[in-house]
Amino acid sequence: MKKVALLSVYEKRGIVDLARGLIAHNYDIICTGGTYKMLVDNRVDVKRLSEVIDAPEMIDGRVKTLHPSVFAGILAKRNNEKHMNELKENNIFPIDLVVCNLYPFYKAAYEMNMPEDDVLEYIDIGGVSLIRAAAKNFKDVIVVIDPDDYKSIIDEMDQEGNIINIIKRRELATKAFGYTMGYDSLISRYFGKDIFAEQFSNSYKKTADLRYGENPHQRAALYRDMFSNASSFFTAEKLHGKQLSYNNIVDLEAAKDIVIEFDKPTCAIIKHSNPCGVAMADNIVDAYRLAYIADPISAYGSIIALNRKVDLETASEIKSNFVEVLVAPDFDEEAFSMLATKKNIRLIKYRDMEKSVDPVIYKHIAGGLLVQENDTIEEDDKTWRIVSEREPNDKEWRALKFAWKVAKHVKSNAIVLATESRTYGIGAGQMSRVDACELAIKKSNAVGSYTGGTAMASDGFFPFRDSIDIAHKAGVSCVIEPGGSVRDRDVIDACNEHGMALVFTGIRHFKH
Fold it and tell me: Which UniProt keywords apply (predicted)?
């Protein structure tokens, strides 16, 4: 007895070969309009669904498959005598295989940015219903939504005598439900502009299985947020090197997020999500040199991001050190050739290295999510307050601004010591602010030797004056912090006693 396959696809890739394979396995094929036309044009023997069920496609194609004969044929349980008798009584044939994919809503709404009325026409109704019905009845009906699965379906029929086993059917149904869930998520997010809606779901698509997670005993995979248009790893191209690890990708994003903050040639060197050196200069090779000497020990095995094309001179400097990943907008041909001789380095080209980030951040907790806006506030230094008796001079102002930009990207408690163009010492992720201060000074290699003014930036307020006293002894001449402590007066007095300039931003930049 012949079986019946219903084919209704927007993406036509592979459908001709699939149809021919199904016919070879004793399937009759019925199709909707566009699929029917393509198969007939390719001389495949198929029937048009509207003719088989005697129900025309209506209202500009909005109604094609929404008919009781179609859904009864899909949903009837083959081992249920009542179901099968009802099909016979109503002259309805069972449908054994459904191949369907949906209108490209994402392309219309997000990539092409069509007007809303046009986008509405890309909301698939019948296709989603077909997929869900077939997936629900997976024990009797095979559902296929991905052209990449066509070959495996035919191969299994070849090997198993026209049978798809129940394990494969369940896998295909699971994939189908995930597909429709993601599709509905895209639509929901398009119409729901509130990022803190009462209920929401995101659509993520797996792009790679990773070797492991943070540690070798943890499994891991990489998923792309289908809503995001941020400059990210997903818009980048790996030019050289082995697969990036979970930790590589985390650090790569941290490095990229720093360098896009700056207009001048800038380098950020990252270890475990924290910068160990950041510098900007008139050219990218000097930016790298300055960032590297900020903490050469920590820079071993680091991730480096540059916001300019890598030239031969920069490549020569980097090649002499052990680097896990190098991220840049592009690579000169000679620079790439030189770096590619290093087997273990990964070279990543960001096509869109621009200041573009996701508007929200999600943090998983047991049983749910924390959701917050990303820390992308555009600060106006004209709103900052000089609260000390002495005002910063021009060089100190530039140093304060630079240090403050970097501090935003350092794990709390964070202290950054910097001049107008480079960090000298970074104290990251410490449990107390004074510990962060002491660590930054330890890493700074005598900041007092720079006479142009060394700035200290703190991501949060100083609860006591101790950090100010320590920084003064190390040669720091100016300080920038949010302010807001009950002991602000003590901190201001300490700066005045030491002749240091102190600026309150009114903005905190905790990072956890």
Answer: Hydrolase, Multifunctional enzyme, Purine biosynthesis, Transferase
Candidates 136, 175, 264, 342; catalytic one: 136
Q: What is the pTM of this model?
A: 0.84
What integer pLDDT is reported at residue 434 of this predicted model? 97
How far apart are the C-alpha atoms of 412 and 427, rounded to whole Å?
Answer: 9
pLDDT of residue 452: 57
Catalytic residue among 272, 309, 319, 342: 272
- Choices 1.10.10.60, 3.40.140.20, 1.25.40.10, 3.40.50.720: CATH for 382-504: 3.40.140.20
Q: Where along the chain do its domains lie?
A: 3-191, 232-350, 382-504
Helix 466-474 and helix 488-498: axis angle, to 10°? 20
Dist CA 445 CA 430 (whole Å): 20
- To the query of whether residue 409 is one of the catalytic residues in this protein, the response is no
Is residue 65 scored above 80 in pLDDT?
A: no
**Conformation bin of residue 483: beta by default, left when phi > 0, alpha when psi is -120 to 50:** left
22-44: pLDDT as tens digits: 999 999 999 998 999 999 999 99
Architecture of the CATH domain 232-350: 3-Layer(aba) Sandwich (3.40)
CATH of 3-191, one of 3.30.530.20, 3.40.50.1000, 3.40.50.1380, 3.60.21.10: 3.40.50.1380
Q: Which pLDDT tens digit goes with each residue over 411-465? A: 999 999 999 999 999 999 999 999 999 999 999 875 555 555 789 999 999 999 9
Q: Long-range contacts of range 480-486, CB-CB < 8 Å, 24 or more positions apart?
A: 480/384, 480/400, 480/403, 480/404, 480/455, 480/456, 480/505, 481/457, 481/505, 482/458, 482/506, 482/507, 482/508, 482/509, 483/385, 483/387, 484/508, 485/461
219: pLDDT strictly greater than 70: yes
pLDDT tens for 118-143 read 888 888 899 999 999 999 999 999 99
Nearest to 414 by CA among 401, 431, 398: 431
Q: What are the structure tokens assigned to 39, written together? A: 């198969």
CATH fold match for the domains 232-350 and 382-504: yes
